[in-house]
Each structure stands twice: as structure tokens, then as C-alpha cells.
């Protein structure tokens, strides 16, 4: 559809220019040429958005989720889609209830997981935290994860602000220092700073190509 429109507009512009060249003194053809130029400018803008690089779908990876004692309690499965990243979380060992879960900037998971750094948020200027924040969200924000009475939790999260493929929109998680998926002790309120009151970091998974 976009290509067809662009092609049509380009054709219209080309024919308008030709008409202008063959009958330069005639004012109606000048009007025609001006209209052609306007159509061409619009088509160029549409073309540009169509050229934003897209990720390579199908790339997938697994990352071990560890607790504060360094024990493996679950796994995260990352699947690259064409327009974003799907993060599947399957874990045990959490306190029952809601937990904030975010993508942090550094692929280091040594308890208490502060080495994972802040959220991935390399946009300039930095965007405030919070999926429900009018000025947010930051690139590492995700909805909360719910742990059942036995401490097990499963969920899928989709973000357009992160990727494991080298091309595409959003932060590349497999950069030189990797990234980390961090589960917090408390739920994220999705609006307050800096992390929505999510509290301590209780579990972590290193995200890297390795
Ligand atoms: Cu976090």
C-alpha cells in the first residue's frame, strides 16, 4: 500500500515536472508541477518511516534466573519478533504476590544485584520510569509478575523498547556489557520514581549473547 502510494506520487511528480518543462510559460502546468512536488514530499515522509530497521524475527535465547543465594530458580526465554521482544518468565522461589520486573542495563547478577545497574534507558533526554507515567515509560519497564502461594510465577511480557537482534528499534540487550532481567521484592506502581516502589532486587538473569 505504502509502496504503491509512493510510486504513484513519484510518477505524478515526474509527469508534472515533464509537463512543466514542455510548457513552461503556461501557468496551469506550473500549478500542476507545484501540486506534484507537494505530493512527492509527502511520499518521501511515508517512505522514511517504512525504512525504520526491523528486527530479525525468530532469534531466541534462554537466561537462567538466580536468587540472592546464587541458586537457579527459573528461566527467561527471549524471542525476537519483527516489532518487539517477547520475554517469557518461568520461575519459582518468589514471595507470593506481585513483583516488579524490569530490564536493567548491565549483565551482572551478583547479589544484591545492584551490579545490574539502572534500567536500560539510554534515550536522550532520559525518560522517567513508569508504564502509567505520562512522561514515561523508560525502556526497561514491564508489567508486574505475579507469584502464586507456592512462590511459582509464569508470565509473558512484550516490549517494543528492547531487542536481542542487532537491528531494529529499542535498546540492544546483547551489547558489550549485556543486560539483566531483574525481579523486585514488591510490585511496581508504574508511576513513582525511580522504580515505582518495587524495592529490593530478589532475582536476576543475565541477558547476553555469550
Ligand atoms: Cu528494576
From TrEMBL:
Residues 1-18 form the signal peptide. Keywords: Oxidoreductase, Signal. Residues 74-206 form the Superoxide dismutase copper/zinc binding domain. Residues 23-42 are annotated as: Disordered. The keyword Signal applies. Its EC number is 1.15.1.1. It holds the Pfam family Sod_Cu. GO terms for molecular function: superoxide dismutase activity. The keyword Chloroplast does not apply. It is an enzyme of class 1 (oxidoreductase). InterPro entries: SOD-like_Cu/Zn_dom_sf, SOD_Cu/Zn_/chaperone, SOD_Cu_Zn_dom. Belongs to the Cu-Zn superoxide dismutase family. PANTHER family: SUPEROXIDE DISMUTASE CU-ZN -RELATED (PTHR10003). This is Cu-Zn family superoxide dismutase. It comes from Brevundimonas faecalis. The lineage of its organism: Bacteria, Pseudomonadati, Pseudomonadota, Alphaproteobacteria, Caulobacterales.
Amino acid at each position: 500500500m505504502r509502496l504503491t502510494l509512493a510510486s504513484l506520487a513519484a510518477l505524478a511528480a515526474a509527469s508534472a515536472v515533464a509537463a512543466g518543462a514542455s510548457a513552461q510559460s503556461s501557468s496551469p502546468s506550473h500549478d500542476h508541477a507545484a501540486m506534484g512536488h507537494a505530493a512527492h514530499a509527502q511520499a518521501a515522509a511515508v517512505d522514511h518511516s517504512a525504512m525504520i530497521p526491523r528486527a530479525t524475527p525468530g532469534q531466541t535465547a534462554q537466561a537462567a534466573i538466580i536468587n540472592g543465594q546464587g541458586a537457579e530458580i527459573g528461566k527467561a526465554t527471549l524471542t525476537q519478533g519483527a516489532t518487539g521482544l517477547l520475554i517469557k518468565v518461568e520461575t519459582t522461589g518468589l514471595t507470593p504476590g506481585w513483583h516488579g520486573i524490569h530490564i536493567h542495563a548491565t549483565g551482572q547478577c551478583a547479589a544484591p544485584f545492584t551490579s545490574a545497574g539502572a534500567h536500560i534507558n539510554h534515550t536522550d533526554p532520559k525518560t522517567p520510569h513508569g508504564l502509567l507515567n505520562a512522561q514515561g515509560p523508560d525502556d526497561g519497564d514491564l508489567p508486574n509478575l505475579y507469584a502464586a502461594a507456592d512462590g511459582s510465577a509464569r508470565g509473558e511480557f512484550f516490549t517494543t523498547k528492547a531487542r536481542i537482534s542487532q537491528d531494529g528499534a529499542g535498546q540492544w540487550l546483547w551489547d558489550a556489557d549485556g543486560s539483566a532481567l531483574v525481579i523486585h521484592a514488591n510490585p511496581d506502581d508504574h508511576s513513582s520514581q525511580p522504580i515505582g516502589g518495587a524495592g529490593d532486587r530478589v532475582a536476576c538473569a543475565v541477558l547476553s549473547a555469550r
